[in-house]
Amino acid sequence: MFVKQLLPALAAIGSVAAQSGTCTVSTTTVNSQAEATKLASCRTVKGTVVIGSESGATIDLSGPEEITGDLIVRNNSQLATFSSSSVQKIGGNFKLEEATFLTSLQFPELTEARSIEWVSVTLLNTVSLGPLTKADNVRLSDTFLDTLDGFALSSAKSFKLDNNRRLSEYKSKLTQVSGELIIQANGLDLDVDLSDLIWIANMEVANVTQFSVPALKVVNGSARFDSNLFESFSAPNLTHTETGDISFVGNGFLQNMTFPKLTEIAGGLLIANNTGLDRVTFFPKLTKVSGAIKLRGNFTEVGFPELNIVRGAFDVSSTANIEKSCDKLKESAPRSQGGDGTIEGVFTCTSDNDKANEDTDGSTSDSGDIDGSDDDENGAAGLVLNAALFGLVAVAGLASAL
Ligand SMILES: *[C@@H]1O[C@H](CO)[C@@H](O)[C@H](O)[C@H]1NC(C)=O
Ligand SMILES: *[C@@H]1O[C@H](CO)[C@@H](O)[C@H](O)[C@H]1NC(C)=O
Ligand SMILES: *[C@@H]1O[C@H](CO)[C@@H](O)[C@H](O)[C@H]1NC(C)=O
Ligand SMILES: *[C@@H]1O[C@H](CO)[C@@H](O)[C@H](O)[C@H]1NC(C)=O
Ligand SMILES: *[C@@H]1O[C@H](CO)[C@@H](O)[C@H](O)[C@H]1NC(C)=O
Ligand SMILES: *[C@@H]1O[C@H](CO)[C@@H](O)[C@H](O)[C@H]1NC(C)=O
Ligand SMILES: *[C@@H]1O[C@H](CO)[C@@H](O)[C@H](O)[C@H]1NC(C)=O
Predict the structure, then answer these.
(1) Where is this region: Disordered (predicted)?
(2) How many structural domains comprise the chain?
(3) In angstroms, what is the span from residue 259 Cα to ligand 4's centroid?
(4) What are 351-392's pLDDT values in tens digits?
């Protein structure tokens, strides 16, 4: 099908280009350097350029400054070096997919693309970009990149980094992310620095060694941290989440967290199986949680000094003795459990539970419903925490954004 379109498209290039600098190609497939050179006189390529599977080892697409559609390399095991000394803007998706020989990508003028989607480019390790300052969606998955210096976006809809085994540092210039940031399964020594980030809709971060969000003020949706290697976590400027949860699950080295300004979580709070955490006493200003609070771990102390409203359940269980904390927390239990009603859902607090770390999902059980009633109020409130769903939502969101 591409071949049919190619002939008239390329035939048109020669005549159109000379006059206006714009070549309309619809979709053209480039299978050799000679075919790439046919586009050299076009200032703008109107349409999509596909590098075909029989491209050979080197393609230089110099000449055009803009490609209005997509630029695609797909299922290619020949191309090793792909370059353009002229392309500044790609109106659509810059997509590299299963380009298994590609090691070098040289686009030193490229500053803008609607989306970057590089997936299964397992040898790609040398990349030169404008740098790229504008893109809605970025996905880098299964590459050989050890730096992201070519990416200098200040905002994005979605940014996903996964399975980049050599990546050891991501120093981001993002100030806002309106969709989701997903970082997972990269190199086990990944240092993520989001120093400029002010607000983010959703984030899901796993397997990172350092994580820094000094300026982060608002999480509009949810933030989730799983299986990370950091020993401490600090969100010094975070004031609230607008709709979602905060979750920390299975961060085995975590010993300390700080949330000095966090006043409200609009969803739930889940802290589970972070076995190095010996206390949960780092929410000095937290007053309102609109979902449930669920805590599981090895801690000996739990305290929420300013807590005023918890719409869901409050469910704590530790491998250690937390009797003293339970006695204090119990004062906030629902009236039906003898407390002052701060907590609206079921209140449960148990010590010496050997299996405390095994319960890591986002739902709270009704087992603590000690008054035996099965009231809807508690049932609904106890399940407000939707952290378990967040992963799915984020991935679906990303797929539709690309
Ligand atoms: C991938 O390219 C090879 C030729 O290099 C071809 O034989 C194969 O059919 C292509 N696969 C797909 C899914 O396009
Ligand atoms: C997130 O919250 C910030 C600060 O309140 C706001 O400026 C921004 O528009 C919100 N973004 C979304 C996507 O809701
Ligand atoms: C990476 O994190 C995921 C959770 O998102 C976890 O299942 C996996 O075991 C982690 N891998 C390593 C090597 O820590
Ligand atoms: C934290 O927020 C305050 C008040 O909004 C601001 O002045 C300060 O610069 C922020 N800190 C960082 C590291 O951005
Ligand atoms: C708890 O975290 C450890 C790593 O710290 C992990 O090996 C284990 O599988 C986790 N347990 C559950 C139930 O997630
Ligand atoms: C926890 O972190 C805070 C802020 O980074 C620090 O002031 C405090 O000393 C730490 N506590 C422990 C026990 O490490
Ligand atoms: C956490 O508690 C479990 C069960 O008591 C225990 O096996 C494990 O060694 C503890 N881990 C840490 C880091 O204290």
Answers:
(1) 330-375
(2) 1
(3) 14
(4) 999 999 999 987 764 433 222 233 333 333 333 344 333 333
> Is it the case that residue 288 has pLDDT exceeding 70?
yes
DSSP lists the bridge partners of residue 317 as: 296, 350
**pTM to 2 decimals?**
0.88
User: How far is 399 from 402, CA to CA, in rounded Å?
Assistant: 5
**β 22-30/44-51 pair status:** parallel
Min mean pLDDT across 9-18, 244-253, 264-273, 347-356 is at 9-18
B/e letters for 223-245, b = 16+ CB within 10 Å, e = fewer, are bbbbebbbeebbbebbebbeebb
Mean local confidence (pLDDT), 34-54: 96
Q: Minimum-distance ligand to the CA of 186? A: 3
- Cα–Cα distances in Å, from 266 out to 10, 129, 218? 56, 39, 11
Report residue 348's pLDDT band, with 50, 70 and 90 as the boundaries: very high
The whole domain housing 279 covers 263-402
Gap from CA of 231 to ligand 6 centroid (Å) = 11
Residue nearest to atom 1 of ligand 1 (CA): 75
Q: Which ligand is nearest to the CA of 207?
A: 3
115 found inside a domain: no
Q: Indicate which ligand has the atom closest to the C-alpha of 157.
A: 2
User: What is the end-to-end Cα distance of the chain in Å, rounded?
Assistant: 24
Whole-number average pLDDT of the chain: 88
pLDDT in tens, 239-263: 999 999 999 999 999 999 999 999 9
Helix (H, G, I), strand (E, B) or coil at 229: coil
Q: Is 359 inside a domain boundary?
A: yes
Rounded to an integer, what distance in angstroms lies between the CA atom of residue 120 and that of residue 106?
A: 18
Helix, coil or strand: residue 62: coil
Residue 303 lies in a domain: yes
CA 184 to chain centre: 8
C-alpha 205 to ligand 6 mean position (Å): 22
Identify whether 395 is part of a domain: yes
Q: Is 250 in the pocket of ligand 5 (CB under 6 A)?
A: yes
